[in-house]
């Protein structure tokens, strides 16, 4: 399946599955369609360490590619990062350590009721 054949629901499901497969914690989905034109959904997930954060982001990228979806970007990769971002077109995945997630508090920044999985 090519990139343009994916619906947002399919991309969300693919990303969530890849995070769950590597034991991502506190997976949250924010629908930001009414707030920005840059993306429709934001997924936020917590990793237990910087190494786990990187593994979660890498798994999202690899799972997407295996399913024919080419990510637009993967930022923050490397063992020293406490936050990685994977751009899956209209779905952006943020994976953070608990400390980074508490500090940046993206859910509160967007002032949207999150859907916690």
TrEMBL record:
* Compartment annotation: Cytoplasm
Keywords attached to this entry: Cytoplasm, Repressor, Translation regulation
- Chief place of localization: cytoplasm
Tell me which SUPFAM superfamilies the record gives: Nucleotidyltransferase
Q: Which InterPro entries match?
A: Iojap/RsfS/C7orf30, NT_sf
Name the Pfam families for this protein: RsfS (PF02410)
Q: What does this protein do?
A: Functions as a ribosomal silencing factor. Interacts with ribosomal protein uL14 (rplN), blocking formation of intersubunit bridge B8. Prevents association of the 30S and 50S ribosomal subunits and the formation of functional ribosomes, thus repressing translation.
On subunit structure and binding partners, the annotation says: Interacts with ribosomal protein uL14 (rplN).
Q: Which family does it belong to?
A: Belongs to the Iojap/RsfS family.
Know the name of this protein?
Ribosomal silencing factor RsfS
Q: Organism, per UniProt?
A: Marinomonas phaeophyticola
What taxonomic classification does the UniProt entry list for its organism? Bacteria, Pseudomonadati, Pseudomonadota, Gammaproteobacteria, Oceanospirillales
Encoding gene, per UniProt annotation: rsfS
């Amino acid at each position: 399946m090519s990139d343009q054949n994916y619906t947002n629901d399919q991309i969300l499901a693919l990303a969530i599955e890849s995070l769950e497969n590597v034991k991502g914690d506190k997976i949250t989905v924010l629908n930001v369609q009414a707030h920005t034109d840059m993306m429709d959904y934001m997924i936020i997930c917590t990793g237990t360490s910087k190494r786990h954060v990187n593994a979660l982001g890498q798994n999202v990228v690899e799972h997407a590619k295996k399913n024919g979806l080419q990510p637009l970007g993967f930022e923050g990769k490397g063992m020293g990062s406490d936050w990685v971002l994977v751009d899956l077109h209209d779905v952006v995945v943020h994976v953070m350590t608990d400390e980074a997630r508490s500090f940046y508090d993206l859910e509160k920044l967007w002032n949207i009721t999150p859907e916690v999985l």
